[in-house]
Amino acid sequence: MTTTATTQDAADLDNSDLLNLVGLFSETEIELRDKVRGFVDARIRPNIADWYENAVFPREIVAEMGDLGLLGMHLHGYGCPGRSAVEYGLAALELEAGDSGLRTFVSVQGSLAMSAIHKFGSEAQKNRYLPGMAKGEIIGCFGLTEPTAGSDPGSMATTATRNDDGSWTLNGAKRWIGLASIADIAVIWAATDEGIRGFLVPTDTMGFTATPIEQKLSMRASIQCDIDIVDVQLPAEAVLPDVRGLKGPFSCLNEARYGIMWGAMGAARDSYEVALKYAQERMQFDKPLSGYQITQQKLVNMVLEIQKGILVAVQTGRLKDAGTLDPIQISVGKLNNCREAITICREARAMLGGNGITLEYSPLRHANNLESVRTYEGTDEVHTLILGRHITGEQAFR
Fold first, then answer.
1. Acyl-CoA oxidase/dehydrogenase middle domain: from which residue to which, for each copy (predicted)?
2. How far apart are CA 368 and CA 164, in angstroms?
């Protein structure tokens, strides 16, 4: 015999979680989520408008993120937290509900720089860098994208030449590299006679220069840089020994893409909640905006896509934790969730009217940030072609 929910039961449903997706998570996962949500409420929400307006990355919260176990949280050993993929995803969602730029810091540090060292580094490299990076005492960056090679890293122009004594000389340039101007160690990918290799470059090395990119309209509470590499001299042990070719950086990008599919839903959820609250409080023509049919339609469309996007993320996370995740499945979440999130944030901004263009409200800030999020770690077009190749068996990149 089946039963239906009573009116009271329906009233108890979370307006942001109509399907009770919270029931899909364990007590440990919910505890982690709530801890990160509390951090966002206490440390990010009260300050993010000023950080964003003044283009300030709040370096003072890096150690706090380390204390919370947010840095390299999905990695095991070497002082890393060793959390599950789903726990990492929930943390990314809550962080991006605060701001994409601060979730991006966690992604660059953990999913890119730390993952590269953890996956491909020597034991000496892992022991030297990972414990300090997990604590936030050492900041890393990941140098793959170049001024003329964004979506096509196979056209990489940065080179590394092996010298007679086994050392290396690096030359080239990188662009849109998160954290580079405050990083202590850079993972730089370069073309060699042996294929593409990864190198650990201390950022105080002569010939290495990182310059922040200014006058940005997106990710203003984050740091992205140009890097110039001019005759940088590195010892033989600077190379990551356990990888050659693009599979190295691509495996790290997939770690970042995974976190993005969760994070984008955080920005969407926050924008929806702001729009819902505003619609319930804003009076127009003698009744609240929420009493109009078009407003309700917009809110319903938002929450439906958020619920579906979180389901995509949860299923992807469970597959990842089970060790059965295919990279193709990451493209599903990155493409879908970024695309839907930016639509939700823009719609929420429109519902706020003129007030929506101010930093008093979050949706336009989220929408601006998501312009970057949907571009980095694979544009919509790149992930469409990845999925299209899988579906049809035809290569359409060229």
1. 141-231
2. 49
Cα separations in angstroms, 153 against 37, 42, 148, 208: 36, 39, 9, 20
Q: What is the pLDDT of residues 213-269, one digit of tens each?
A: 999 999 999 999 999 999 999 999 999 998 999 999 999 999 999 999 999 999 999
Structure tokens at 126: 């892992």
- Please tell me the pTM assigned to this model: 0.93
CA dist 395 to 68, 110, 193, Å? Answer: 43, 32, 27
For this structure, is 123 an active site residue? no
Domains of the chain listed by start with CATH number: 15-135 (1.10.540.10), 140-238 (2.40.110.10), 247-392 (1.20.140.10)
| Tens of pLDDT, residues 15-57 | 999 999 999 999 999 999 999 999 999 999 999 999 999 999 9
Interior angle at CA 56, CA 203 and CA 347, nearest 5: 120
The half-sphere exposure of 210 on its side-chain side, counting CA atoms within 13 A, is: 25
